[in-house]
Amino acid sequence: MMWNPEPFVLGGDPRAHLQVKGLSAGYGAFLVLRDLTLEIKPGLTVILGPNGAGKTTLLKALAGLIARQGEVLLNGEDLPLKTNEIVQRGVALVAEGRQLFPQMSVTENLELGGWLVPKAERARRLEQAFNDFPKLRERAQQLAGTMSGGEQQMVAVARAMMSAPRLLMLDEPSLGLAPRMVDELLAIAGRIAAAGTTVLMVEQNVKKALAVADRGYVLERGTLVASGPAKLLARSSVIREAYLGAESPRKSTTAAATASITAA
Ligand SMILES: Nc1ncnc2c1ncn2[C@@H]1O[C@H](COP(=O)(O)OP(=O)(O)OP(=O)(O)O)[C@@H](O)[C@H]1O
């Protein structure tokens, strides 16, 4: 069944709900994710974890960019394995590195995000994108390659929204950005989720990500070590000791393994 998209300001109904059961994925013989079971409910879910934990691998597997085993259900229906079929079900991924066309304008980049829909609908969504991202309207004719990192990330998110996804996956949207831009991008992710698109986000800015998220999962070496409502996770010992630099009487191995995580 094809997903019949609605612009995200109106909220896509039914809201996307992803059930992942016994997921395994990796690269060739190298298995990164082992028997992972998790649930992505409507709202904003953040995936946390140290470098190399398998966070990007999880998003790639869900987007069909790498092979996976196990069951993945989107609103109760099997999620296909092929990327184009997954996109047609309303799943969009904003990968790390943004992958914009630097020699094309903001408008042209955004239009590419809506290339599957008829011209009139594409124009309507472009107008919607400019309403949702007013900064981009001011820069409509600017070449994407000449924009700041934060602005480019905004274009990448807006372009993904041009496909009116019901599940938006964001891989480290704040990577390499100045603190103010980090706040802005995370606020955008929160707004998108509040408006009805389910958001699954990988983030290294643990504190800020948990502040905008509804729920979180902590991944270490391909398996889950913690999960729960974002507010509770932020107060949990796993997160506080490993990611937020809280004092602990015993030195946790988790803390050592995750020293590179930024708790901005
Ligand atoms: N294309 C690839 N081929 C082989 N191994 C890979 C490939 N991409 C990632 N890996 C390995 O898979 C493991 C998980 O990587 P992944 O990128 O999913 O981690 P991550 O949690 O997203 O970390 P980071 O925060 O550093 O991006 C790592 O050991 C990594 O070296």
Automatic annotation (TrEMBL):
InterPro entries: AAA+_ATPase, ABC_transporter-like_ATP-bd, ABC_transporter-like_CS, BCAA_Transport_ATP-bd_LivF, P-loop_NTPase. CDD domains: ABC_TM1139_LivF_branched. The keyword Membrane applies. GO terms for molecular function: ATP binding. It holds the Pfam family ABC_tran. Belongs to the ABC transporter superfamily. This is ABC transporter ATP-binding protein. The lineage of its organism: Bacteria, Pseudomonadati, Pseudomonadota, Betaproteobacteria, Burkholderiales.
